[in-house]
Amino acid sequence: MSGGSGTGTEIELVQLLSPEGERVDHQGYSFSGDDETVKGYYRDMVLTRRLDTEATALQRQGELGLWASSLGQEAAQVGSGRAMLAQDYAFPTYREHGVAWCRGVDPLHLLSLFRGIDMGGWDSAAVGFALYTIVIGAQTLHATGYAMGIERDGLVGTGDPARDAAVIGYFGDGATSQGDVNEAFIFASSYNAPIVFFCQNNQWAISEPIERQSRIPLYRRAAGFGFPGVRVDGNDVLAVHAVTTEALERARSGNGPTFIEAYTYRMGAHTTSDDPTKYRLADDLEHWRLKDPVARVRAYLNRTGAADDSFFDAIQAEADEFAVQLRARCLGMPEPLMLDAFDWVYAEQTPYLAEQQARYAEYKQSFATEDEAVGAGH
Amino acid sequence: MTTLTMAKALNAGLRRALEADPKVVLAGQDIGKLGGVFRVTEGLQKDFGEHRVIDSPLAESGIIGTAVGMALRGYRPVCEIQFDGFVYPAFDQIVNQVAKLHFRSRGRQTMPLVVRIPFGGGIGAVEHHSESPEAYFSHTPGLKVVSCSNPVDAYWMLQQAVASDDPVIFFEPKRRYHERAEVDESATPMPLHAARVVRPGTDVTLVAYGPMVKTCLDSAAAAADEGRDLEVIDLRSLSPLDLSVIAESAQKTGRVVTVHEAPVNLGLGAELAARITEQCFYSLEAPVLRVGGFDLPYPPSRVEEEYLPDLDRVLDMVDRSLAY
């Protein structure tokens, strides 16, 4: 693989679009899409960012319990998400809002999770996007096992692009310290599973910097597990797309796992409960603001004349309308019923749980009767 | 009818499960060529291939975590944890992922996964090889927990666990692996989550599961010599509990003694005592009493015979129950 396992001392970073919006040549990778495709990614990223802004506002207004911002990571998520085919499957953390968008998950479901309505209302199997996983790194094993299942289904290396499938396991820099992630690397490598390990190194695991997780660039860890690792500019949607496309193709064709380290930055707080001013410098943020993933695509489209203001205005208008609709739908979501939760525990309900449910229904009903009685008295 | 040891009965059950459904896969350490350290999977990799009988890397969380992924892909993984004390590295995957995926997806995703765990002491092993961690799992909503006590149940219950759309933690009493019984492979098995009266009696009810069922039967035989008629119930299902059989017995005898190897504090016996008291309060002649391991880490094997409940400890508790 042209990205190499990085055995040398020089740290490689695959970049195809500079922060100023200029196309950059790379020896090993190129972006195959046309400008219409790039405009599509721009729209994806703007809408993902608008979703993030609206969700953050909803949290601040008390409408969501929590929100995990994806601000600054739009290129890593849209670039990789758009590299997937319909038959592929993604296993996200709780921050992959841009990937969810690319997979066709209704963004309302992301809000319903953080509003405490449910734990992810989308149909994972239908969209090829697993439920968000909060336990750090646990999903990388699920992704690996799912990939082992694809291989057992005979859907790797058939040569039929409509059939061959692969998995992306998403995780962050902090997760690379988890046992599960390292075990996932070993299982994937040992069974040559069709998987791409996609690490968004956003530099921060809540308050702990990457230096607390690793003494070497993360992508170089892959060499120790026996598969290639590549570091890509995570704020460059074209490079992320190119690198992920190649890694997925490699997996689908039976050549096993790849580790992608998307080098990016968490522009916001870890979640709405976090206060990054306590542990990082404003300068850092300013430095990364110059590498903004959305701005550089806009600069590119502007510079090349592929899009003009009417395009950008239309996208902005769409984003604003999207936010208005999303907000209204969020506030209009019906409250979940405690009584229903009893039905979700088992495929085959147990007598004891059914009994608890019935008793609770009866208990609740006893209040309703009192209320009615009180009401009748007035 | 075939005479089988429990280990062979489990093997035969797994073989039938593999034959019945091509989506059934086995995963665990040393389960392939070696056939497992207890030979429960002997010959299965040879007959079903490395794709279905998977020798896993030495990582318990990895075994369960990848099985979750395979289950999401439509497979029915049967994972072997080599020894009870080694299940803890997989604890997060079991209680946070396996147990909750059906719930989190509001029933959209099933988790038809079995975790086989040889458990309990009495084999003179080094530490971490003799533990009884069943209460942790029985306490966890979303899991079902069962234990077989004899070759017939071993054969049928394992197949039923594999066929279950809910995750099942399957505890195998390793010290009973070599006990034999006639297994009728054409019989109709009883339901997986049902308790069973294995010895009817009228004076005191003993409730046990897994390795302690035999201990209770031996105790009942000894008590019979003294003119006491003990009823023995094999719980079989630890979660959910089949209270109907136990309550019926408790109402008849008025005296219940629970028996397990696990430490008594917050063990299965505690839940049984509470539930029996709730349901049979006016029938009880004595409080529900518990025999179990002491509240110690499992001790060195030279003293395990004293640590583990045995015939004398069971009968001593029967005497106490009758003294009320």
UniProtKB/TrEMBL annotation, chain A:
Keywords, comma-separated and alphabetical: Oxidoreductase, Thiamine pyrophosphate
Official protein name in the record: Branched-chain alpha-keto acid dehydrogenase, E1 component, alpha subunit
Xref: Gene3D superfamilies: 3.40.50.970
Entry's Gene Ontology BP terms: branched-chain amino acid catabolic process
Cofactor section: thiamine diphosphate
Keyword Oxidoreductase listed: yes
Source organism: uncultured Propionibacteriaceae bacterium
Residues of the Dehydrogenase E1 component domain: 43-320
GO MF terms, alphabetically ordered: branched-chain 2-oxo acid dehydrogenase activity; magnesium ion binding
The EC number(s) this enzyme carries: 1.2.4.4
Keyword field contains Hydrolase: no
